Amino acid sequence: MRPRKICAPLTKLDPRRSTLTVETLNLPTYEFRTTERNGTRTIYDPVRQTYVRLTPEEWVRQHFVQYLIQELDVPAGLVAVEASFRYQGQPRRADAIVHDRQGDPLLVVECKAPRVSIDQDAFDQCAQYNLVLKAPYLTVTNGQTHYACAIDFDAQNYTFLDDLPPYDDLRSE
């Protein structure tokens, strides 16, 4: 995907030093509701409609979901966050799944924390999930770097994309 403007930094307390650390993302800036509960920083997830623990990976997930909704016009009601499914009999959770209007998976998103490099293991994890989900698009992001690909199930190959297309184009391709 093409580089995006840098978003507002994530600030969090370091419990050992009570200092702030900053994570910047290569995604647009969005406003989020955050709070501290029982000494833990939380962020409101509008898709799940609840506060969740604010980790670096969650910061990336929330930004990328908002990117999908606000920039690519994905209907919020068709996004599942931390969606559960089974792979080889074991429970698994995808960071985000975008569905088409019939409820079929269209895009699987795997998020990593900003300091976690995107490597073959991250792609393998997303691809393994897609053996079950059968989505025609996959994305792996750490908030800094984003990789998107289109899957051709008939030819059993994939093509990397420069950017994810808007939702209506995802559905029609």
Structure notes:
It is a single chain. With 173 residues, the chain is of the alpha+beta class. The chain has a domain at 56-172: tt1808, chain A (Alpha-Beta Complex), CATH 3.90.1570. 21% of the residues lie in helices and 39% in strands. Strands 6-7-8-9-10-11 form a 6-stranded mixed β-sheet, sandwiched between helices. A 3-stranded antiparallel β-sheet has the order 3-4-5, with helices on one face. The protein has a two-stranded antiparallel sheet with strand order 1-2. It starts with 9 loop residues before the first strand and ends with a helix. Residues 2-22 have low confidence and may be disordered.
Q: What's the shape?
A: globular
Strand content of the residues, in percent?
A: 35-45%
Distinct helical segment count: 3
N- to C-terminal distance: 18 Å
What's the pLDDT, averaged over the residues?
A: 86
Order of helices and strands: EEEEEHEEEHEEEH
Helix/sheet category:
alpha+beta
Rg over C-alpha atoms, rounded to the nearest angstrom: 16 Å
- CATH arch. level architecture of the domain at 56-172: Alpha-Beta Complex
Low-confidence regions = 2-22
Widest β-sheet, arrangement of strands: 6-7-8-9-10-11
What is the helical fraction, as a range of percent?
Answer: 10-25%
Q: Tell me, what is the CATH class of the domain at 56-172? A: Alpha Beta
Question: In CATH terms, what is the fold-level topology of the domain at 56-172?
Answer: tt1808, chain A
Please describe the biggest sheet, giving its number of strands, its sense, and whether it closes into a barrel.
Answer: 6 strands, mixed
- Report the count of strand segments: 11
